[in-house]
């Protein structure tokens, strides 16, 4: 599906909405749907009696939109191995002890995924949809910069840990307010690398009741692939999927030239995890004032790490064909997409699944590099929280593009959480077809 610069439509695969969006579109919640509505003359409208068997049409046009929104669940592919985490028993005084309530628009068991990264804390809750799909009912995301200063001290700072705990308490409240059947709560590079990472997670469990697991880099790469499966089209022969994080960057080479199964992660032929991300790179080279010389130095630094990736050539047989492309899932590529679309406010529905040509990426990169720090802060798709990190992300992206040149880049506003939900639901058998009962 082609995306235009103005008025681009987001692909069906990427149009999931949170429960609040569905509430806003619900005709039953509209003031115009009450029985006491009146005409412009102030007189009550007369109701026409509907003949038996006659169809009812929604004159507001909202009901079809709502139905389409609820049906456009995020398509994801099946897991490669069991990934299970049961919600822990919270302490009596923990923030996890929230009063339960009946959520609106709920149908089916609720699954949850939490990702505590170097820069962000994210939560996603969803119910299963059609086979391989699910519908998001609640989501949370906050920039906490847990890895701030980690590259120089080797430890998580007190202020950073306080910010993360504050965000996790919100997540615990949300989880406690739902009848979640299964969840997986993970921590990535910051907690992996920090000397006090385990100590911090013990504090998290004591104060929030959440028991987070530190996953290894292989698992992180696999989950990123699983979460982005529906954005790889059927006629694709090869994909380089990359996830530029705050403290690490995962890259997976996916070969689909011989055959394809629903489990995209089973087609990974090579992968690597670079021990650098937007936070660590910005702290090393500076992120506020980035001269052309500094930017080139960052790109060269990333190249040094990529040079040690032994499997980098595993897609050479398809790399020069039009059936090969890059697939990026990170704040860097979604920011570039938002700038490309000239969005006044970031809109995930227009960004997720967007195709960018190599020329368009070059234009956006050059545009970003020409802005000073204040200009980056004022951009609605960047803001103050990312203004000092976005150029470090661009440097990582540039190095990846130079190693694996491609005329096409697809943008994914999804990743580990979607991969976790996919694996949990598939492992729980929610998409299995019921066996027909034998007739006596």
Q: Assign an overall shape.
A: globular
Rg from alpha-carbon coordinates: 23 Å
Tally of individual domains:
2
CATH class of the largest domain reads Alpha Beta
Helix content: 25-40%
Q: For the report, how would you describe the main beta sheet?
A: 6 strands, mixed
Terminal residue distance = 50 Å
The name of the CATH architecture of the largest domain is 2-Layer Sandwich
Work out the helix count: 16
What fraction of the residues are assigned to beta strands by DSSP?
15-25%
Quick overview:
The chain is α/β, with parallel strands linked by helices.
List keywords for this structure.
440 residues, alpha/beta, Nucleotidyltransferase, domain 5, 2 domains, 6-stranded mixed sheet, 16 helices, disordered N terminus
What does the model show?
The protein is α/β, with parallel strands linked by helices. The chain has 16 helices and 12 strands. α10 crosses α15. The N terminus is likely disordered.
Fold topology:
Layout (H helix, E strand, L loop, with lengths): L18 H7 L36 H10 L2 E2 L34 E7 L3 E9 L4 E11 L6 H4 L4 H19 L3 E8 L1 H5 L3 H12 L4 E2 L2 H11 L10 E7 L4 E7 L12 E7 L3 H8 L6 H15 L17 E5 L2 H10 L7 H4 L3 E3 H13 L2 H6 L4 H4 L3 H14 L4 E4 L4 H13 L12
Parallel strand pairs: 2-5, 5-6, 7-10, 10-12
Antiparallel strand pairs: 1-4, 2-3, 3-4, 7-8, 8-9, 11-12
Helix pairs in contact: 4-6, 7-16, 8-15, 9-15, 10-12, 10-15
């Amino acid at each position: 599906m082609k995306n235009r610069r103005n008025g681009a439509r987001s692909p069906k695969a990427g149009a999931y909405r949170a429960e609040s969006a569905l509430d806003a579109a619900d005709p039953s919640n509209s003031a115009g749907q009450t029985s006491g509505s009146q005409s412009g003359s102030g007189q009550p409208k007369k109701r026409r009696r509907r003949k038996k068997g006659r169809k009812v049409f929604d004159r507001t046009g909202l009901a079809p939109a709502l139905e389409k929104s609820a049906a456009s669940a995020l398509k994801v592919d099946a897991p490669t191995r069991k990934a299970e985490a049961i919600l822990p028993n919270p302490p009596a005084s923990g923030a996890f002890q929230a009063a339960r309530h009946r959520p609106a628009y709920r149908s089916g068991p609720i699954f949850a995924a939490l990702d505590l990264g170097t820069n962000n804390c994210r939560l996603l809750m969803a119910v299963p949809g059609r086979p391989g799909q699910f519908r998001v009912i609640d989501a949370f995301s906050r920039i906490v910069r847990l890895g701030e200063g980690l590259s120089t001290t080797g430890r998580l700072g007190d202020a950073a840990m306080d910010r993360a705990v504050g965000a996790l308490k919100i997540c615990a409240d949300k989880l406690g307010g739902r009848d979640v059947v299964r969840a997986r709560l993970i921590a990535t590079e910051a907690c992996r690398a920090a000397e006090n990472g385990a100590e911090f997670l013990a504090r998290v469990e004591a104060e929030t009741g959440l028991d987070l697991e530190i996953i290894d880099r292989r698992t992180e790469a696999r989950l990123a692939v699983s979460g982005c499966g529906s954005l790889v089209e059927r006629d694709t022969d090869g994909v380089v999927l990359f996830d530029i994080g705050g403290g690490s960057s995962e890259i997976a080479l996916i070969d689909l030239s011989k055959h394809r199964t629903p489990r995209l992660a089973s087609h990974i032929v090579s992968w690597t995890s670079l021990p650098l991300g937007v936070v660590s790179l910005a702290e090393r080279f500076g992120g506020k004032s980035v001269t052309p010389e500094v930017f080139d130095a960052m790109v060269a630094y990333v190249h040094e790490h990529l040079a040690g990736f032994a499997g980098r050539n595993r897609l050479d047989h398809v790399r020069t064909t039009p059936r090969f492309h890059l697939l990026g899932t990170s704040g860097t590529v979604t920011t570039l997409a938002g700038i490309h679309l000239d969005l006044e406010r970031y809109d995930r529905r227009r960004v997720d699944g967007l195709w960018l040509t190599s020329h368009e990426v070059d234009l956006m990169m050059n545009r970003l590099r020409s802005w000073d720090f204040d200009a980056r802060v004022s951009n609605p798709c960047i803001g103050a929280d990312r203004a000092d990190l976005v150029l470090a992300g661009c440097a990582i992206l540039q190095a990846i593009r130079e190693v694996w040149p491609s005329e096409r880049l697809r943008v994914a506003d999804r990743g580990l959480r979607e991969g976790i939900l996919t694996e949990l639901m598939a492992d729980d058998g929610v998409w299995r077809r019921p066996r027909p009962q034998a007739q006596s």
